[in-house]
UniProtKB/TrEMBL annotation:
Residues 119-138 are annotated as: Disordered. Pfam families: AAA_33. It comes from Paractinoplanes rhizophilus. This is AAA family ATPase. SUPFAM superfamilies: P-loop containing nucleoside triphosphate hydrolases (SSF52540).
Length: 181
């Protein structure tokens, strides 16, 4: 079993690639955004936005790895502190950690993807969410300006990883599966 971390800025294609690779392995995909959006929908507030989502995903990953499943973490992982969570988890469980840094090598295409996702994403709260959370807005999904802000705080990855450019790679799934195996 393997703990794979798919990291990169919003809109580069992490989630799409993670889903395709997961179907091939198979693996469980745990997306920090999904947890973060759900916490927001249920009006769970925290002093450090996003911090709890990473913790919840790490706990779920631990359960999945313990029962023998491959796990793919889908998260921006912009800073060393976030990345260290996965290093610690892999070491504690004695499983290999593989990082796949996903990039989009063409800024115009990256911006197109971000704007398309922002325009079409279902930004409304889940129908079972509390009534006060029913009026969610597009604020949950980063627009291009917010992606550029995230880019400024994104620390370069150091250490072993596979870098996948979703703009250039025609069929990245095979090489990623091979790297994870």
């Amino acid at each position: 079993m393997v703990l794979a971390v798919f990291a990169g800025l919003p809109g580069v294609g992490k989630s799409t690639l993670a889903a395709r690779v997961a179907a091939e392995l198979p693996a469980t995909v745990l997306a920090v955004d999904t947890v973060d959006f759900t916490l927001q929908r249920y009006e769970v507030t925290e002093p450090r936005p996003g911090y709890a989502a990473y913790g919840v995903v790490a706990a779920l990953a631990e359960v999945q790895l313990t029962i023998g499943h491959h796990v793919i973490i889908d998260a921006v992982n912009p800073v060393k502190a976030a990345r260290q969570l996965w290093v610690d988890l892999a070491e504690r469980l004695g499983v290999p950690l593989r990082v796949v840094e996903v990039v989009c090598g063409d800024d115009a295409e990256h911006r197109r993807r971000v704007e398309a996702r922002y325009a079409t994403r279902d930004h409304e709260a889940h129908p079972t969410a509390p009534p006060a959370a029913q009026n969610r807005t597009k604020g949950d999904i980063p627009d291009w300006v917010r992606v550029l802000e995230r880019q400024k705080e994104y620390e370069p990855y150091l250490g072993p990883r596979l870098v996948v450019d979703t703009f250039l790679a025609k069929e990245p799934v095979g090489p990623v599966v091979e790297y994870l195996s």
